[in-house]
Amino acid sequence: MSDHIKIKAAAGTWVVRAAGAVLGESNDALELSEGAFPEVIYFPRKDISMAFFDKSETTSSCPHKGAATYYNLEAKSGTFADAAWSYEAPIDGVSEIAGYLAFDPTKVAVEKL
């Protein structure tokens, strides 16, 4: 793992909300710290209502985590483009985040209960 990336269990219960709906709640979330960036909470996919998400065409690459896949949130109020991302096959050293989703805080709310 890159020396500037730390992954640990996110203590407590975490919830993700958007467009007036709870999209997921988890006691098994992970907290990823990367250098000077704000911490990011990753939710296990099993704890997210994936029926609200469609894979988008957007991808990105991080030299420390690998290739990211993005998801659009489809809500009654409209589409929130690229509201979530996932590292489907993260590079060695950050494999804990495989199968987890992170969320764009400008599009959804991620809160500790």
From TrEMBL:
<protein>
    <submittedName>
        <fullName>Uncharacterized protein</fullName>
    </submittedName>
</protein>
<dbReference type="Pfam" id="PF04248">
    <property type="entry name" value="NTP_transf_9"/>
</dbReference>
<dbReference type="InterPro" id="IPR038694">
    <property type="entry name" value="DUF427_sf"/>
</dbReference>
<dbReference type="InterPro" id="IPR007361">
    <property type="entry name" value="DUF427"/>
</dbReference>
